[in-house]
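Exercise: predict the fold of this chain.
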Amino acid sequence: MLKIFIAILVFIFSVKFFLFWLWLWQIKNYHLGRFKAHFETQPCKKFFASFFRNKIPEFTRKMTVIFIFGLFLISFVIFYTFLYLPDFFYFIVLLLLFFNFLFSSLLVLFFQIPTVILRGRILKKAERKRKSFKNLKVIAITGSYGKTSTKEFLAEILSEKFGREKVLRTKKHQNSEMGISRCILNELNQNHQIFVVEMGAYNKGGIKLLAEIAKPDTAIITGVNEQHLSTFGSMENLISAEGGKELVNFLPKNGLVIFNGNNKYCRDFYQEIPNGKIDKKICYSNFFEEKDTIGYDLKAESINITKEDVSFLAVLKNKEKEEFRAGLLGAQNVENILLATCCSLEMGMSLEEISRACLKLKPFAGQMELKKGIYGINIIDSSYSANPEGVMAHLNYLKVWPGKKSIIMPCLIELGTASKEVHRKLGRKIAEVCDLAIIMTEDNYKEIREGFLSLKKDNIGIFLIKDPASAIKKVKKHYLKENENSAILLEGRVPEKLIKELTIENEN
């Protein structure tokens, strides 16, 4: 009886650990490089986290198959060992408990074999279907940041001109080979004239693969930073993929490339392209204050950022001008709107038509959103994801609030060798803008704090607080009632509990 009790206990803990590792593999998209990058900092702590954290993956069809198969193996090993083998074989069960991560990983990688075979068939099928649409205009958008916003803005603007039934865009999370292929197979039809495709990758050659499927004739490069550097291995590899080089090399000779002239890597790439490689090149300058040595096709002047919208004067190379306004939060949206405007102009729209379409732009799911919070605090929710460029832009937006300003965020991930310097830079920016900073993960807290204290040596307002309840307590202590001009920026994947507790709906 005791043996059965112990076996059941060991089984429960084994399943708990198994679920945690399956969850981790799933949120890393079953990508070995991203899984390894998770352990870049504090590998021992993150390994032992499985013993304390309770996580459950989303049970997709693939995950359900892996879980059932793994559950059968765990059950068989544990109960067979306890019921039928001599006591000295119990060490097998202990190994299963301690090395559950290895068992889970091998199982996931084993099931990648049929996944890869099935994926190959789906990609070929999507490629064949795409080829049958001879006159389809395909606009590919890539970069380290701003891809989704640019895609959404462009699709909305073009829909005003051509109609929604003629403009197809990839949906949320459809920027991989499977996502794009499924969009083509399930959504693309004969009514569509324009296909706006977001393209993301984690390794060199990834964007080339996506281009072979979608076959774009227009490329928009939103900008490059160190995001996912750890999975690419080097900035050279990253620039090759998300920097647009793989995409540009795939375009036809008369293709169109639109660069974000406000990004250094984009400006460098713009100047590298040999004459005759492509028919047209477009570059714009936005906040770029240095002397303009390469010219611009479209730029923004008189930029005005308020709590609830952005406005600017769009100026073409021929000096044509038009006032733009959009109900979006933060200056980073100006870059994305200009990229979408460049493309829309080439699609036959006038600057005036695009300006009118932009009046209808609103934040979409996953973009920075303004919410009312407890004590009258304004909650700026940007918890969908985070990258270095985005955090900097969101901190700049935080400046428009005249009251107290705070940020709550985890450390950024997958930055590779650039991680320490990026976090020091973030720390300095946080010190420049915020009165209070709560960092919820330990990975690069030391570097954020170093940067913060380099500017605010006499005002220690930065804290490492991992527990959501403790973070909420710190916020409530920092703010008094009637804080209508104060704001808290929630950046990156902060706990859902914290978001709910800070919003007005949960005020007691």
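Check your answer against the key: The chain has three domains: 2-117, 133-358, 369-506.
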